[in-house]
Amino acid sequence: MPESSPHGKSTGSSTEDVFADTYAEKGGPGPVRTLVWRNIWLMVMLHAGALYGVCLIPTACALTLAWTAVCFFFSALGVTAGAHRLWSHRSYKASPALRVFLALANSMAFQNDIYEWARDHRVHHKYSETDADPHNAKRGFFFAHVGWLLVRKHPDVTEKGRKVELSDLKADKVVMFQRRHYKLSVLILCFLVPMLVPWYFWGESLLVGYFLPVLLRYTVALNATWLVNSAAHMWGNRPYDHTINPRENRIVAFSAIGEGFHNYHHTFPFDYATSEFGCRLNLTTAFIDLMCFLRLACERRSASKEMIAARVQRTGDGSVKSG
Ligand code: ST9
Ligand code: ZN
Ligand code: ZN
Question: Does the keyword DNA damage apply (predicted)?
Answer without folding.
Answer: no
